[in-house]
Amino acid sequence: MNADAGNGGFTGHATDALRAADLPSPNPVPPRSERAASAALQSAARRGGCAVVGDVDPALLRDLLRVLFPAPRDPSARDAEPQLWLIGGAREFNRAACSAARVVGCDDRLAALDTDAPGLLRSTAIPAAVVLLAPPADPRDAARALRTWSRDGLQRRILIPANAASAHTGTIRGWMQQCGASEHPAPIPSLRWFETPGAPAVGRVPSELFDLARDVGRAEPPDPALIADVRARLQAHRRSLGSAADSRRAWPWRAPAHALPAPLPATLPDGSPWPKISIVTPSFNQGAYIEETLLSVANQGYPAVEHVVIDGGSTDSTIDVLERWSPRLAHCVRERDRGQSHAINKGFARATGELMMWLNSDDRLAPGALAAAALAMHRSGADMVAGICEIYRDEALVERHLTCCPDGPLPLADLLDIPRAWMGGQFFYQPEVIFTRDLWQRAGASVDESWHYSMDYELWLRFAAAGARLCVIGRPIAQFRVHPQQKTTAAAEFRAELDRVVARFRADHPDAPLVTPVADGDVGRDRLRITFFNDIGYMAGAGVAHQRLARACAAAGHEVGVLAVSDGSTFDRDPPVSIQNVCDRISAQRPDAVVVGNLHSAALGPELLGAISSRWPTTMVLHDQWALTGRCAYTGGCEQYRSGCDHTCPTPDDYPALAADRIAAAHRYKRLLYTQGSAAPRLLANSEWMRRFAADALGPAADPRLLHALRLSVPTDLFHPRDRAACRERFDLPPDQFIIMTSGTSADDPRKGLSHLAEALRRLNLPDVLVVSIGHADASRPPPMPNFRAMGYLRDPRDVAMLYSACDLFVGPSLAEAFGQVFIEAAACGIPSVGYPVGGVPEALIDGLTGRLAREVSPTALAEAIEELYADDALRSDLGAWSRILVESEFSPEASYRSWFGALRTGGVAESLDLRRKIWLAPRVPDAPRVEFVSPEHPGWSVLDGFDHWEGPYPQDDLPRCRWALGPVSRLRFDDAAGGERLLLIACRNYWAGQRLRVVVNGACAGEHEVPVTGNARTLSLCTGITARPGQNEIELHHWQWDATRPDRPIALLILEIHVTPRGPAAARQEFVK
What we know:
Oligomer: single chain
Low-confidence stretches: 1-38, 53-57, 63-207, 241-247, 570-575, 1064-1074
Strand content: 15-25%
Number of domains: 6
Number of strands: 41
């Protein structure tokens, strides 16, 4: 860690005696502390002259900044050398000690510090202050360390105790005073247990347990009896603390990881204020749950909440909870009432918010729900917002529910269809619904108190009759508890009341639509068996989108299998994969439905799509324009597709190439395929722009029910805001430059628009800009622009997400794009974007909300947009916050699945498959299913790991397309339908003296060979006899030599070809031939 690792001005110094007034009062709402220190806190730290090293709790960091630097920062001040270092942990302390500036802070792991730490500090100026956070696990160790440091002349200025009443603080106090330190009179809130207003402090672990824990750590060998005793006593102590200790690490006591930024931007994106949201909580004897209900509202971080609690005369612990919380509530009424509906009406009579909801005292809001609902209402103009409802049983998340109702008018006919729709799961759980005051008033401004179980259902009926418009977001709104005391657990009474509600509603609304009656249990199946098929699996952008949709379908409980032709390494196999090969593999999975992605990367024609859709209900996702043209993935302005593509195509040799004399037939076949009625594949466009293009290309002959827009997604659990400084350190990026991320590493592809970015930056001539991109640049050619760094191929999506988080801005200057996944990936990481208003980009990059669209397609306009965001830190921060909210709501895996499910329903597929109208979601989104590769008549192969990207050809070195095998082990897989004796053929070149290669097949060594150095002079062919088993087989290539100077790319052997072919029964052979 260099001394300039943090940058920021310094506007105040820690003094010998801090005033108690400088310390914020204990916050009754638990601070957000599960995330790594947020970008906002890190920025505040830098502005205060504070550099952060290691794992420092963000809530602690916030409180320390308030104590040490209470003066507001002048935003025009220039950055200066950091004055305070907050060190998280001993290892980071020792790494940074020799470069610390003036002030050093360390945490309570003081005993683990190396004894030479004071010596290291002598090389710098004597610190002006050292902040010691106490107590450590063993105060005697702290005392010894303090005594040692005191002898070395290091002065302690401040002690901030973790708990003012802790006995350990008293143990340390004397040593601190002997060292000349002054003591701050109050504890830091972040170092205390999370307490609700007026609640007694909890969490003071008896000192004897510290001693026992120390003895456990020192026992050699470990003493199982002692360990068991400590565990039992800790568990007993935890039980004695009650629910506060059990819950304190989870929502709503703490904000979860990836929570929305705090604070929110001051306004909505158009500058209007966040609407006031009134929440009514009816309560009666729910003392076991109500505090978490209140916390879930208070911890929203939403700036305009009006919480009204109407208690019907509780006699349990609810009384104590409400006494503590009443100062925080807009209204708290405690008096007998006529029941839940009466309490709700009393609450709404006092409410003044523009948006309204009720939250029962045994349920909770999900984190960030209010901001997400407010933004969705603002963007959609809807009257109602619904989202995911998380279902909890025994404090465990057991499932999630999302309505499958389309956005738009609340469907009254479906509401009246109780067995198929309401009881079938089509609609909502009550606490996930937020509605406008205007809709409430149009529907009568009251809950019908005559209904005991179904007052919410009856209200939704009146909402639908009043013309309510619904907006559904794909993120959690509410957390619904299932427990025996609930009213709706009385199933028979609940169901009978629903029928009475419908009868009365029909009497009041004689024109209400009629529905065909069915029995309650006759509502269809819950699960499908789905096969996903495409050209190259999860490779490239379309493959990534394919993977994410497969993952979303798996999260909805479907049995998902994934097939592909290639991983990108075997495009030109001989013999090729046939239509029969593909259909046989799909048939083996016995699917109910097939989802087809891109086909053109493996040179598969439309005839394959026709063969699949003729046998199974099929949806094809349009990631580009190939399915609608003769051969091209992007038309580039050509409009021949309207009248018919043919041999006059101006670009037959461009990717994906097709012989000119075959283009007309291919285009005619596609058009015919999409007009085959029920046998035609449903087309799912990856954007609304792409759907409109498809409708225009197909004309009136296509059935509009077979064409839909699909919402793509980004895995929000992987792509989320991270600490920028840590991410830059991960990639060895400079901490003090403005970093722009872009896509593409070469200006050879004009569609990617890198030349436009280069020209825009040349015109701006900004002094501190670095441009980074994923991929490898051609070292033999100049970079596409100055100050450009190619970061290599990042195969782990977490690395990709970290690179986004390391940057200040994403710029995607593509000149043609069907959607633009990169923009929603950046938004998920809280990074604003700049792009051109072309194709589907305005749907992925929403101007003024997730970034800036250039006013036109020109380097000048691109430069203007970049300059605006470069110069405005506050705007970038706001755009980043709005971006994350938007992605969670509209581009989550759950939102993507809902759009796919809706396409099945609209296109008639769901009905033909008897699929129930319910979206059930697993508690967590699972990993994507593993890709299985379709084999031709002889086995093909695919990479598992340990191989670099394909590159070349390089005619000057007589090299075809090739890829590096990486040391120490490269792993590949091949499928073999029957198994038996095979030949493994590897064509390669070696550049390392002393190279050896061991071939391991299915865990057994098949041969080990010396590999001579070839350079570029010749190619070696290794022929090894192997025995394959039926199904999947795994081959490991173990290398003796590789490039140890490049740990990120340890190239070992240059692979030109790998083939697995049948062989005769002769003995296995291992030989090299030139």
